[in-house]
């Protein structure tokens, strides 16, 4: 049974190897174009929040990131969410 599986796997691999290496007609290399609108956009880095808890069960945190608005929003969310009931 193992021999049959081995033969089937080898035959399948040979078939796919032949199909992948077969060239049909003229192949061209990839063409890369630069679009100025896309090149000017820089991805924003996500916020990094280091949450700490002390022995009195009080929380403190450090927030770092590129956008000041996002840092302020995250700080407000943490203050509301971690407020003692």
Helix count equals: 3
User: Helix fraction?
Assistant: 40-55%
The overall average pLDDT, rounded, is: 78
Could you tell me how far the N terminus lies from the C terminus, measured between alpha carbons in angstroms? 67 Å
Q: Structural class per helix/strand content?
A: alpha+beta
* Largest beta-sheet characterization: 2 strands, antiparallel
Low-confidence spans: pLDDT under 50, at least 5 residues?
Answer: none
- Cα radius of gyration in angstroms: 29 Å
Description:
- The chain has 3 helices and 2 strands.
- With 85 residues, it is α+β, with helices and mostly antiparallel strands.
- The chain has a two-stranded antiparallel sheet with strand order 1-2.
- The longest helix has 20 residues, at 2-21.
- It has a domain at 44-85.
């Amino acid at each position: 049974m193992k021999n049959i599986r081995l033969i089937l796997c080898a035959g399948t691999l040979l078939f796919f190897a032949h199909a992948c290496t077969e060239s049909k007609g003229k192949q061209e290399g990839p063409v890369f174009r630069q679009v100025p609108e896309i090149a000017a956009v820089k991805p924003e880095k996500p916020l990094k929040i280091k949450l700490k808890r002390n022995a009195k069960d009080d929380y403190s945190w450090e927030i770092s990131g590129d956008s000041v608005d996002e840092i302020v929003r995250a700080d407000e969310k943490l203050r509301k969410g971690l407020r003692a009931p």
